[in-house]
Every structure is written in structure tokens, then in C-alpha cells.
From TrEMBL, chain A:
Span of domain Aminotransferase class V: 4-377
Catalytic activity of the protein: (sulfur carrier)-H + L-cysteine = (sulfur carrier)-SH + L-alanine
GO molecular function annotations of the record: cysteine desulfurase activity; iron-sulfur cluster binding; metal ion binding
Pfam family, one: Aminotran_5
Source domain of life: Bacteria
EC assignment: 2.8.1.7
Protein name, as recorded: cysteine desulfurase
Cofactor(s) this protein requires: pyridoxal 5'-phosphate
Organism the protein comes from: Nostocoides jenkinsii Ben 74
Transmembrane segments: none
Keyword match Lipoprotein: no
EC top class named in words: transferase
UniProt KW keywords: Iron, Iron-sulfur, Metal-binding, Pyridoxal phosphate, Transferase
TrEMBL record, chain B:
Location (main, coarse): cytoplasm
Protein purpose: Catalyzes the 2-thiolation of uridine at the wobble position (U34) of tRNA, leading to the formation of s(2)U34.
Active site, renumbered: C101 (nucleophile), C197 (cysteine persulfide intermediate)
Gene3D superfamilies on file: Adenine nucleotide alpha hydrolases-like domains, HUPs, Translation factors
Annotated gene: mnmA
Catalytically driven reaction(s): S-sulfanyl-L-cysteinyl-[protein] + uridine(34) in tRNA + AH2 + ATP = 2-thiouridine(34) in tRNA + L-cysteinyl-[protein] + A + AMP + diphosphate + H(+)
GO cellular component terms, A-Z: cytoplasm
Marked site positions, Interaction with tRNA: H126, Q336
Residues binding ATP, per UniProt: A6, M7, S8, G9, G10, V11, D12, S13, L32, G125
Protein's cellular compartments: Cytoplasm
Positions of the tRNA-specific 2-thiouridylase MnmA-like central domain: 207-271
UniProt-listed Enzyme Commission number(s): 2.8.1.13
Tree of life domain: Bacteria
Protein name in the entry: tRNA-specific 2-thiouridylase MnmA
Species the sequence originates in: Nostocoides jenkinsii Ben 74
Length: 395, 365
């Protein structure tokens, strides 16, 4: 048997989203055209916009459709940085948590290398949480007036810890600094209300919640200033040009709506699986540790479907290989295109020493996960850990 | 058997992996990440550790339908191959990093990790043959003499050989390319890599200068007179003719070669070709691929990859070995390896400590 435990990388399409995608693939017309076909296509896009906004506490005009989370993050970081500097060239500092995804870190690195930006990192607690007081301290490290943007993710992609976003946005607001939030891992899994969150910009993607790959959105308050990063036909409030993907937006909206409406029951189901997996792994007597905050029965501090384990004396890639051979799809962290294993910056940011940070695996649950998946992992772990420990001794 | 196919991204290892699969083995593809430098990964067009090569290897693995992983052995490669390479040159010797990599990385770090993870063997795209002999597995030259790589595998012990597969040993390179094309591998026409993988531009002296710094010294003629200057004796190899940068050319019009390197005095001595000929080699760190020869043995000796094999009388003494060649050969540098053959069979190897001239008497019995 095989067990797919990499839902945080991508999760299967929800049946409703699949049906919506197929149905809308035959819709003719460019939503920007004024003819009858265009009107029909536009109607579907705008309905999708309204449904997505409604599910996430946003207004339809705040929805900017993108090709996914990475584009939304890039647009938010580069676009807001450019706009803030246009208004005041002194604003060259970016403040972000030390556990952001590369879709945030790398645009920031690019701005530092090419556009005089510098960055202040807010380090998380050993539990993987960024506190309001640590954000306040980071802003005060230098003149808060020179900060262009604050960016903190809603839930971490590797260790699943949840950040107190409303508290953090309140701190940014004290200084009049706009805030971006990468909510790619949170939307559809835990309650996300854009208006109540207090953030100005929020990124989401379709394929982490049962929508199609290649769909996503940036939620942007009406007063958020964002310089476009793709110029062209002026779609999406002139912020994101490009012909709209009618079928994709439709399927995305259906996926978000379906996930959000079923969220409470699904979260309870996943929390039970998650707790069984974490509890079971800790009880194996192999010295396994769970990374980041974990409260049994709760999704207050950790995503319902996230399990991140550290196995002392092993390398993550060995564990990954051995679980793969046992039919279990796991991950060491975020997928890396080069395929070269690197120690996770997230785990290091928690203050875990480098030699202990390597033997980490992420097992992420989703809407198709079952008790059998959890049992398969728990059955495979003892042998995998023993072999991985021998392999480390060998190489 | 459960086999790790080491996949560099080139055509040879691709076909080797495919053949192991065809033979009924359970095969997993592994690409070795040997460099951590992003610049090397992104900019280098050749070599065995570029991002593009990893992608090529992955593509072939996907076509074969086998799992594929990148294993990070960069620390081991740095320590056991690159640092050793620098240290050897700094000491005035001429190392062969490919032998070192096979000894310490592919058939040590990689093999050990594979065995610990539950594999039985490692397969590579080297051109060499393994033959089951009366005393166990034997390593032999490849059928394709032009591509034969038994020399760089001469460091393997019987134990390492017991866990190795070289599926290409019975095939010529053109046939391997044809087979790759027939299998639909788009790496079928990928150029061979000839350079040292971590020096993709081929400028070994420049690469060494960055690590060892400039150490100016004198170039001497055989009579001791100064005929030029160098920026570091480590940049020279016995038998080298090009790039000597002499202040004046030789009066006699004959070509000059490096005939000696004195690291203590930091001098490089040049001379005419006749000074290069040696017929006695003393080797250290002897490694035997099977039974250790006892007493004087008649074997073939080869001192560089694709160099010619010369008949010799060999005497082993612990980790040392004395090789008396039947005739003089040129360009034998300390640090190079001498690999010994019995027919096509690899008997063992040693690192050359000194090379000189024997008196051509019968070896003492």
C-alpha cells in the first residue's frame, strides 16, 4: 500500500473543484472583451471573485487573481516595496520573520541585492511563533519610519506553527507600516478573515486546499499601494495584467468555498489523525521529537494537518528515501528544485543546532488522509530510523 | 539485488542504470551533489556536479521509472578529494582526483551509505569489466580500449569490488551512445567530460593559485643556471612542456620539459626529453584488488589514464611496491598512480613516491 503524506506540498483536487474546472474549461470568451462571449466569461470570473471574497472576509474588489502563491508573494513584496519607496525613498527596510517561505525570502534577497533594500528578521520563539513584542523590537532596531513593509506568514509550511497575525498587524499599524501575510498554508485549513486580520496584503494558492495548480490570489486592501510587476492589458485593478483564467478562477473559488465551509469538521478530523501520528511517533521510544508548538486536540498553535518530526542521529534525506521505499510519500521541508538537501532555515531559526536539524521529516495530512496512512507511517518508522542511523554512521 | 545507480547526468551512467534495470535488479538512481557552491551549480557548463547535470540524471531516472535522489556528499568530496588535491600539488606531487574520488567517494562514502540503507551494490557507468574468477571477483579492462577506465578504478579493493557493477565494460562508447538514442535518452549526444569536474575551465594552475597563493621562484636548467621564473612550483608537473614561460629558449633548439620539482627550494628544473625517461618506480599506499603478489612478478604497469602499459617486474613489500620497467617511459610524476595488470586483470595500484633509473640488473631474489 502507499500513503501520501505530502499534502502541504500539494493536495488532490476536491471533487467539487474538479467538476467546476472541467465545466468551465468550455466557457468561451475573453473576460476583458465587450462582446457577448466576453460578458459570459466575465460573469463567471466575477461570480468566482465574489465567492472567494465571501469565504475569506474580503470584498470582491480586494481579490487580485494570480497564477499562485509565489506570484502573489512576489507581487506583494516587490510591488509594495516599490510603491512605498516611490512615496518616500527613505523606506528601504523590510521586516520579516526568519521562517518565511522562499517565495518571500528570495524576492526580499533580490531587493536587497538590486534595490538598496535591507532586511530585519524577527526571530521566532523556540516553539516557532513570532510574537508581537519581538516584532515591535525588530521595528525599533532602527527607525520604524524607514520600514517599507512587514511580512509574516500565517502558518509555516514546514513546521505548521500558526502566527498571531491580528496582533502583529496591530503592531505594524501603530507605525503606519503596511503588512503582507503569506497565508498559502492557512487558507482553507484554519479560519482566515481578511478584514479581521488587519493585514493589507494576503497571498493564497489553489493547490494547497484542493484547487488547481496555477491558480491563486493576492488579497489587497483598496488603499494598499502596489506597483504592478507584470504590465499589459491592465486587468485586475491594473495591478496584474494578463488574460484571466476563467476555468481556473472558477475552480479556485469553488475549492476555497468548499474548504472553508467544511473547515470545522475537517479540522477536527485531521487534528485527531495528527495527534495520533505525533503521539504515536513520540511513543516509539526512538528519541523522536516534534518540532514547534503542539497542543493536543487544538489547531490554535499548529495546523491540523502538520506533523514535523526530528529524529536525532539521522539525515532527513535518508529517512525520506527509506519511507519512500516503504510506500510513504514524506518531505524534509519545502520542495527544492535543485534536489540538493539543505538544512532547513526554519528549523535553524528555532535555535536547534545544525547537527540536530538535519534529521527532520514533514508528514502533512489532508482531505484524503486516513487512519491507515497514520498506521503505515508508525509501522515503517522503527526500521527506517534504525537504517538511517546506520547510514549516517557509514557516510 | 537492490542497486544504487550513480547517475552523473551523462550518457554512460544513464545506460548503465537502464541495463541494471533490464537485468532485473531493483534500481534507485542517485546523483551525487559534490559542490555546495551555487556559482558552480549555476555557471559551470560541464563537470559532474552542475544543476543541469542533476536535471539530466533526474530526467533519465523518470524515463526509467526508478526513484531518484540527490545525495549530498559535498563535505566528503571537499575533504577527501579537493583538499587532498591541493595538498598534493602543494607538496610538489601530481595527484589524480578521479582515482581519489572512486576510492573515497563513489566506492566508500556512497557505497557505505547505500549498504547501510539496505542496498547490495553500486553501479556506475565506468568502462571496466568485472569477471568472476577462481579467487573471487576480478576487475578487468573494458572491451573498448579507447575508453577503458580500469586505471581510475585500480584503487578498489576486493571488498569494494564485491559490491560494484560496471554494466558498460563489454560495450564500446559508440554502441553506448546508439543504445542511449534507441532508449530515447536525450543525453545520448551529450559531450563527454574530460576536465577535472571541480575545475570546469581546465585552468588547474589558476585554480591552485587561488588556494595556495603566488610563490615566486626560479626555473633552472639541468646545469643549475636560472633560465626563468615561476609563480609557484605547485603549478608544474613532471614532463610538462607547455606554459614554462622561459626567459630564453634553449641554445640547442631542443624542446625543454619539466624534469624536477624541488618544493623545499621552490625551484622547477627543466631539461631535454632524454632526461625524462625512467624505468624504476617506487610506490606507496599499495592497494590490492585480490591476492597480493608474492616475490618478483611479471606484470604490466600503467602510470596514467589512457597511458600505455609497459611490461615490468614488480615486488610488493607491505604497503610499498617496487616496479622495474622493461624500458624507460617519460612523464612519470610523484603523486600519480601506477596501476598493475596481469593480462587484462587489474592486480592493484600504488601512489608513485619516486621514479628514477634502475641499473637494469636482475631483480634481487
Amino acid at each position: 500500500m502507499t500513503a501520501y503524506l505530502d499534502h502541504a506540498a500539494t493536495t488532490p483536487l476536491l471533487p467539487a473543484a474538479r467538476a467546476a474546472l472541467i465545466e468551465a474549461l468550455d466557457v468561451l470568451g475573453n473576460p476583458s472583451a465587450v462582446n457577448a462571449a466576453g460578458r459570459g466569461a466575465r460573469r463567471l470570473v466575477e461570480e468566482s471573485r465574489e465567492r472567494l471574497a465571501g469565504a475569506l472576509g474580503a470584498t470582491p474588489s480586494e481579490v487580485i487573481f494570480t497564477s499562485g502563491g509565489t506570484e502573489a508573494d512576489n507581487l506583494a513584496i516587490k510591488g509594495a516595496y516599490a510603491a512605498r519607496r516611490l512615496a518616500d525613498p527613505a523606506r528601504h527596510r523590510l521586516v520579516l520573520s526568519g521562517i518565511e517561505h522562499h517565495a518571500v525570502l528570495d524576492p526580499v534577497e533580490y531587493l536587497c541585492a538590486s534595490q538598496d533594500a535591507n532586511v530585519t528578521f524577527v526571530e521566532p520563539t523556540p516553539d516557532g511563533v513570532v510574537t508581537a513584542s519581538s516584532l515591535r523590537a525588530a521595528l525599533a532596531q532602527d527607525d520604524p519610519e524607514d520600514v517599507a513593509l512587514v511580512s509574516v506568514m500565517w502558518a509555516n509550511n514546514e513546521i505548521g506553527t500558526i502566527q498571531p497575525i491580528p496582533d502583529l498587524s496591530a503592531v505594524a499599524r501603530e507605525h503606519g507600516i503596511p503588512m503582507h501575510c503569506d497565508a498559502v498554508q492557512a487558507v482553507g485549513h484554519i479560519p482566515v478573515d481578511f478584514a479581521a486580520s488587519g493585514v493589507d496584503l494576503l497571498s493564497l494558492t489553489g493547490h494547497k486546499l484542493g484547487g488547481p495548480v496555477g491558480t491563486g490570489a493576492l488579497l489587497a486592501r483598496r488603499d494598499a499601494q502596489v506597483v504592478p510587476q507584470m504590465h499589459g492589458g491592465g486587468q485586475e485593478r491594473q495591478i496584474r495584467s494578463g488574460t484571466l483564467d476563467v476555468a481556473g478562477t472558477h475552480a479556485l473559488a469553488v475549492a476555497v468555498e468548499t474548504a472553508v465551509h467544511g473547515l470545522d469538521a475537517e479540522a477536527q478530523r485531521l487534528i485527531a489523525l495528527r495527534d495520533n501520528l505525533i503521539g504515536g511517533a513520540l511513543a516509539l521510544g526512538l528519541g523522536i521529537e516534534v518540532t514547534g508548538a503542539w497542543t493536543k486536540g487544538s489547531a490554535a498553535d499548529r495546523l491540523p494537518g502538520n506533523v514535523h518530526l526530528r529524529v536525532p542521529g539521522t539525515d532527513g534525506d535518508s529517512l525520506l528515501f527509506l519511507l519512500d521505499a516503504a510506500g510513504i510519500d514524506a518531505a524534509t521541508g519545502s520542495a527544492c528544485t535543485a534536489g540538493v538537501p539543505r538544512t532547513s532555515h526554519v528549523v535553524l531559526a528555532l535555535g536547534i543546532p545544525e547537527d540536530e536539524a538535519g534529521g527532520a521529516i514533514r508528514l502533512s495530512l489532508g482531505h484524503t488522509s486516513t487512519h491507515a496512512d497514520v498506521d503505515a507511517v508508525l509501522a515503517a518508522l522503527p526500521e527506517a530510523v534504525a537504517r538511517a542511523r546506520r547510514a549516517r554512521g557509514a557516510a | 539485488m537492490r542497486v544504487v545507480a550513480a547517475m552523473s547526468g551523462g550518457v554512460d551512467s544513464a545506460v548503465a542504470a537502464a541495463r541494471m534495470l533490464d537485468a532485473g535488479h531493483e534500481v534507485v538512481g542517485v546523483h551525487l551533489a559534490l559542490s555546495r557552491s551555487a556559482a558552480t551549480l549555476r555557471e559551470s557548463a560541464r563537470g559532474c556536479c552542475t544543476l543541469e547535470d542533476a536535471g539530466d540524471a533526474r530526467r533519465v531516472a523518470d524515463m526509467l521509472g526508478i526513484p531518484f535522489y540527490v545525495w549530498d556528499l559535498a563535505d566528503r568530496f571537499q575533504r577527501d578529494v579537493m583538499d587532498d588535491f591541493v595538498a598534493e600539488y602543494a607538496a610538489g606531487r601530481t595527484p589524480n582526483p578521479c582515482l581519489r574520488c572512486n576510492e573515497k567517494i563513489k566506492f566508500s562514502a556512497l557505497l557505505d551509505k547505500a549498504l547501510a540503507l539496505g542496498f547490495d551494490a553500486v553501479a556506475t557507468g565506468h568502462y571496466a569489466q568485472i569477471v568472476d574468477g577462481p579467487a573471487g571477483r576480478e576487475l578487468h579492462r573494458a572491451v573498448d580500449a579507447a575508453k577503458d577506465q580500469s586505471y581510475v578504478l585500480g584503487v578498489l579493493t576486493a571488498e569494494q569490488l564485491a559490491h560494484a557493477f560496471f554494466p558498460l565494460g563489454d560495450t564500446t562508447k559508440p554502441m553506448v551512445r546508439e543504445e542511449a538514442a534507441a532508449r530515447g535518452f536525450y543525453v545520448a549526444k551529450k559531450p563527454d567530460s574530460y576536465d577535472i569536474c571541480f575545475i570546469p575551465d581546465g585552468d588547474t594552475r589558476g585554480w591552485l593559485t587561488k588556494r595556495l597563493g603566488e610563490q615566486p621562484g626560479e626555473i633552472l636548467d639541468a646545469d643549475g643556471s636560472v633560465v626563468g621564473h615561476h609563480e609557484g612550483a605547485y603549478g608544474f608537473t613532471i614532463g610538462q612542456r607547455k606554459g614554462l614561460g622561459l626567459d630564453r629558449s634553449a641554445m640547442d633548439g631542443q624542446a625543454r620539459y619539466v624534469v624536477g620539482i624541488d618544493r623545499a627550494a621552490n625551484t622547477v628544473t627543466i631539461g631535454t626529453a632524454d632526461l625524462l625517461g625512467v624505468d624504476e618506480i617506487v610506490g606507496m599506499r599499495a592497494l590490492w584488488c585480490g591476492p597480493v603478489p608474492t616475490g618478483p612478478s611479471r606484470l604490466g604497469a600503467q602510470v596514467r589514464a589512457h597511458g600505455e602499459e609497459v611490461p615490468a617486474t614488480v615486488e610488493a613489500d607491505g604497503a610499498r611496491v617496487r616496479v622495474v620497467l622493461d624500458r624507460r617511459i617519460r612523464g612519470v610524476a610523484p603523486g600519480q598512480s601506477v596501476v598493475l595488470y596481469d593480462g587484462t586483470r587489474v592486480v592493484g595500484s600504488a601512489t608513485i613516491e619516486t621514479a628514477g633509473r634502475a641499473r637494469h640488473t636482475e631483480p634481487a631474489s
